[in-house]
Write a structure and sequence with these properties.
Layout lengths: L10 E5 L4 H12 L3 E6 L2 H14 L5 E5 L5 H15 L4 E4 L14 H29 L3 E6 L13 H20 L5 E8 L5 H7 L3 H9 L9 H12 L10 E4 L19 H11 L3
Parallel strand pairs: 1-2, 1-4, 2-3, 4-5, 5-6, 6-7
Helix pairs in contact: 1-2, 1-8, 3-4, 4-5
Amino acid sequence: MFKEDTLSGKTILITGGGSGLGLAMAKGFASCGADIAICGRTREKLDNAVKEIEAEKEGAVARGYTCDVRDYEAVNGMFENIVSDFGSLEGLVNNAAGNFLSASEDLSPGGFKAVVDIVLHGSFNCTHVFGNYLIDQKKKGNILNMVTTYAEGTGCAFVLPSACGKAGVLAMTRSLAFEWATYGIRLNAIAPGPFPTEGAWSRLVPDRVLEKKFKAKVPMKRYGEKEELANLAIFLMSDLADYITGECVVIDGGERLQAGQFNFIDGLMSRSKLKKLFKAMKPK
């Protein structure tokens, strides 16, 4: 479906691109001719990711930028550096996120804020800076937001901050898709189901019993492959999808057809045992 030049002439920034699905998308974009900028908070992780991207595609151009997307001024400075380094910027993938399992009555205000600040405020910060850059330069561009299957309609138990933040990102996607269409700016979203990644999986599905139940409730009886998500992202960021905007594409093997990604946990054990499990799983 894709060629080596499907994304040629485009520079794309992927937030949280140093690992997991962000890195998989970065590699996919690079394989199709895009120049790649990735950002995150850990320099070593970014440097390793850049080496991986360049190793997979001869002639690939990739750079890493340390940035906390929650800080608007830091985001603004990062975009200035990217444009200075690459000469232009045509695409943004808001992939940086945070999540953890918790009974909602046990959430602290700080825990709720930490997730919403990264997911919603971070996505807004990058979108706002990038959108204004495109408008000022009279350039067309694409913004792709990573949401979840529970961002629309169902919500989800035990991941309240993520559900609230991702629902806000989806609303932002559709609001700006209409408002910014006049500038030639497209905004779309991807809602992945379960795609195992080392970081997220350790916080969300660390137990063998949970992992078995998680896979069993996917109608296709398997997890998603990172390359499958990357292929969808390539399509939405390319000129092949030039008339698609304001859309949220679900890629989950049919898992969304059962409401609430983590709702099943409530039936596995007593609430008191759940709380003990959640407490043991909290980041140190």
